[in-house]
């Protein structure tokens, strides 16, 4: 049995460069010598039937209560969980664009916290826990320099501000479990990529060496 792969999640606000960084990370891991088997995931996964409903909601083509959409985002992770576990057990490292932390941060931030923080955490309890959460921070001024927000539901300055606050709380609450690695994403793409790669290689090595069981949220 090979040692399992590492599970790495990238989180952050809009315009923090997460998607670019994930693709750079994936290519650098798979082109290293020897190559690290790696699979990239992203949430929401809009390709499944549940993902299609989420997509309509985000594009404001469909409306839904805050509680209902929150549960759909979580279900979208649960439907992916068996394959995710299998991939890790096969020895493949998984790098993932957004996960349960975005789930809590966005729902708890909206509408003055109608869905409470603890309620928001509930549906994801039991999902595979990442070995590393890379949290890309971006200042408001850089966020704004990087272009206008698109037309999706959560892409407003006010909401992004509250989301930032909930992410800070999540990070503080997770401190005892496994600290997040905060990466200053105001810097150049290359500088950010270097820090991310270093952190991922470190966790990869640890996981391959110790082969720890996959923990749960
Ligand atoms: N989002 C993402 C949530 O509200 N809950 C979740 O569980 C997840 C994974 O969906 F505004 C929000 C965050 C973002 C939107 O994400 C779409 P992408 O990364 O822009 O596709």
From TrEMBL:
Q: Which UniProt keywords are listed?
A: ATP-binding, Kinase, Nucleotide biosynthesis, Nucleotide-binding, Transferase
> What is the organism of origin for this protein?
Tetraparma gracilis
Q: What is this protein called?
A: dTMP kinase
Q: Cite the Thymidylate kinase-like domain residue spans from the record.
A: 10-196
What HAMAP family does this protein map onto? Thymidylate_kinase
User: Which family is this protein grouped under?
Assistant: Belongs to the thymidylate kinase family.
The metabolic or biological pathway listed in the UniProt record of this protein is:
Pyrimidine metabolism; dTTP biosynthesis
Say which domain of life the source belongs to.
Eukaryota
């Amino acid at each position: 049995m090979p040692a399992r792969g590492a599970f790495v999640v990238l989180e952050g606000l809009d315009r923090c460069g997460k998607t670019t960084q994930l693709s750079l990370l994936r290519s650098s891991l798979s082109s290293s010598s020897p190559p690290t088997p790696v699979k990239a995931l992203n949430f929401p996964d809009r390709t499944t039937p549940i993902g299609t409903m989420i997509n309509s909601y985000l594009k404001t083509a469909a409306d839904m209560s805050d509680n209902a959409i929150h549960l759909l985002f979580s279900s979208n992770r649960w439907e992916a969980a068996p394959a995710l576990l299998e991939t890790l057990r096969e020895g493949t490292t998984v790098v993932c664009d957004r996960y349960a932390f975005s789930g809590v941060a966005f729902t708890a931030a909206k509408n003055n916290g109608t869905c409470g923080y603890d309620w928001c955490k509930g549906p994801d309890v039991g999902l595979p826990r990442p070995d590393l959460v890379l949290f890309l921070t971006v200042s408001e001024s850089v966020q704004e320099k990087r272009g206008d927000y698109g037309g999706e539901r959560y892409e407003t300055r006010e909401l992004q501000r509250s989301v930032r606050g909930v992410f800070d709380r999540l990070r503080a609450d997770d401190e005892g479990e496994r600290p997040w690695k905060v990466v200053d994403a105001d810097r150049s793409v290359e500088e950010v990529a270097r820090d991310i790669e270093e952190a991922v290689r470190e966790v990869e090595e640890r996981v391959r060496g110790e082969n720890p069981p996959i923990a749960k949220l």
